[in-house]
């Protein structure tokens, strides 16, 4: 699906993921996992890749593709934000101490890595391509 570069598109994305999982008879926890991870990554693209309050963020397109390949459910996110690999460029999360004293940043991407079997990023031309994969069952 093609999303406008706006946070308001997250609801439409979540509904599409749930529909895909349901139509293909996949376990419901896959919809939960993918929605959580896609929400985190798309939010980061819109909020940081397109700039906070960027008036033309909605002019950007984010493409999300879901597919079943063998025994894996895969999602690919394609965007035109600046070059940024969330899995190597994001700061490592502060996992110690209480929530109020922790440094902000990195925890969402950390959780994406924990929830998926594979998560990778590459840059081609002017596009970022992020792949998520989780074994089915």
Automatic annotation (TrEMBL):
Keyword annotations: ATP-binding, Kinase, Nucleotide-binding, Serine/threonine-protein kinase, Transferase
Domain Histidine kinase/HSP90-like ATPase: 6-131
Superkingdom of source: Bacteria
InterPro entries, alphabetized: Anti-sigma-factor_SerPK, HATPase_C_sf, HATPase_dom
KW ATP-binding (keyword) present: yes
UniProt GO MF annotations: ATP binding; protein serine/threonine kinase activity
SUPFAM superfamilies found in the cross-reference section: ATPase domain of HSP90 chaperone/DNA topoisomerase II/histidine kinase (SSF55874)
Transmembrane portions of the chain: none
The protein's name in its UniProt record: ATP-binding protein
Organism: Azospirillum lipoferum
Native organism taxonomy: Bacteria, Pseudomonadati, Pseudomonadota, Alphaproteobacteria, Rhodospirillales
């Amino acid at each position: 699906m093609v999303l406008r570069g706006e946070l308001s598109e997250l609801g439409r994305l979540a509904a599409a993921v749930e529909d895909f999982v349901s139509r293909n008879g996949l376990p419901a926890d896959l919809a939960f996992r993918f929605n959580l991870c896609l929400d985190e990554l798309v939010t980061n693209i819109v909020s940081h890749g397109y700039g906070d309050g960027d008036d033309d963020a909605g002019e950007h397109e984010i493409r999300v593709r879901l597919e079943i390949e063998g025994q894996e459910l895969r999602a690919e996110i394609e965007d035109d934000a600046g070059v940024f690999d969330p899995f190597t460029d994001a700061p490592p999360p502060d996992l110690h101490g209480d929530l109020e004293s922790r440094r902000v940043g990195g925890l969402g991407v950390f959780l994406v890595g924990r929830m998926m079997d594979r998560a990778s990023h590459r840059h081609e031309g002017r596009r970022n391509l992020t792949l998520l994969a989780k074994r089915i069952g």
